[in-house]
Amino acid sequence: MEVLDEMVIMISADYELFINCGGPSIKFMGKEYEDDSNRGGFSQFSSRSDKWAYSSTGVFTGKQETRYLAKSSGFLNVTGPEFYRTARLSPLSLKYYGLCLRKGSYKVKLYFAEIMFSDDQTFSSLGRRIFDVSIQGTLVLKDFNIMDEAKGAGIGIIREFDVSVEGSTLEIHLYWAGKGTTAIPERPVYGPLISAISVEANFDVSRGLSAGAIAGIVLASCVLLVLALATLRMRGYLGGKDLENNELRGLDLQIGHFTLRQIKAATSNFDPANKIGEGGFGPVYKGELSDGALIAVKQLSSKSKQGSREFVTEIGMISALLHPNLVRLYGCCIKGNQLLLIYEYMENNSLARALFGREEHKLHLDWPTRKKICLGIARGLAYLHEESRLKIVHRDIKATNVLLDKDLNAKISDFGLAKLDEEENTHISTRIAGTIGYMAPEYAMRGYLTDKADVYSFGVVALEIVSGKSNTSYRPKDEFVFLLDWAYVLQEQGNLLDLVDPSLGSSYSTEEATRMLNLALLCTNPSPTLRPSMSSVISMLDGKIAIQAPIIKRSETNPDARFRAFEKRFQDSQTHISSSSQDSRSHMRRGISMEDGPWIDSSICLPSKDDTRHHSSSSKLLKDLYDVNLSD
Q1: N or C: which end of the chain has fewer CB within 10 A?
Q2: Residue in 327, 449, 317 with CA at minimum distance from that of residue 388
Q3: Which of the residues are catalytic?
């Protein structure tokens, strides 16, 4: 198939592309801009010429019927070519693909004009549309505001870029990160918008094969193609009933879709030797694709009661979350009732294994690296909580869910998966999912879930990073339940720096260590309202904001009631949880080893004390995992 791909590229005559985004076919400067007036929104569409395609992800909130095509109204004076009077828009992610292009350098021109706002003194002039643009996976425009760049509404502007096409496909990705207004001049108006696209070769297109050579190659390639298709059909790759492909048809371009055969080949048929961990959602395997790319394949135990289309929709929304401190989700594979998630592979495994794994797995993390890791986790959480359109509460931040790449940059994994693990297709969870020792007390004991639960978990992980000890395994004395409990005692005694990992010796900054330890205690404040936001945490780590750590008094006769109450809460739930979690209390007491793989998980799901009460009041207690906070 790779040979066929190369032959297609060789004989391809496609070296230019012109699209009138959201409008009919028109001519401009001697070039015909193809029609792109398909009204489909949350879908994918291929052009009649098969030279290009687009995919759109997301649904506009607040309105049942929403336009995905924009057209200028009579009151707006649009200047420039005719294609500036129409545009295509998307609520979240809009991708255009140039297909079957020759290898080489191209000049890409993106045409924009803001035609949904006005530039007069009316309410409509207050609108702000802000989005990002990537070409071939590289960010080229960040926080792009059409009106600001064009100096007004209805004014056309062009942004030009030189890009390289190494294969045969060009990808232009416009995506909204939740910035700008959302209800001006009406609800909902937001997301990326584009008027036209032109792609022209920077190389001499006159040079090429003769007509006879091209005819010979075409004939030979057709014969090879027929033989290849016949071989694939005989081997069972083609034909037959494939319910999952029928169900997913029309969604392929929203997220990378891998076949089960691809994944089996990459993982050597899920060879146990390639198993790199076991998480609460299923085992994880290391794999290598045919192009040599390394991947991590998470095999979810079983699919929820949502259909495959809903699954791919939610996975597609998760995959659209791009941040340097989040593990990249490449795509998925659905087969029967199984769902496989394909992630980028992290060379240095998990933070847990690096800090307190077996000796042969431990990494020597110097102080600057530990600070960098702590900052990376904070930035990833700040993105999930405050910067992305999907306001995601992770619910299970811990050292095993923080992975390290080859440069020891921290990346958060498993974000957004708690929603996919729900037993019912509902926006409210009556289960408490998390890990003993990392869950915030208000969430563990009352089911009250906000982003401050992640802040608490971050504080515990920060404490582990400084001390090099596991919060659930390290117990200097029997009366201390967790490492955090011991930290409160040392703070009260004025010996907080005794927590610093002895392996660092004197090679660390006492000022920075004190700041990080005080921040850890601040983040683990018993009161969620007194915990800082993750954006404030970043400023505190950078020394831009002073830290006033709370003084938590711990009674000698009645050690921290939060820990004891939590332990009792866990005991009371034993009859409701799976057998795999029934010995979690004893694990908690004697300490368990969770460090051997990046996905090894001690997560539990505790049912609520009164499910009926939670069903009636959970809207107040638990926020939707995908709580979209769209502020004007």
Answers
A1: N
A2: 317
A3: 396
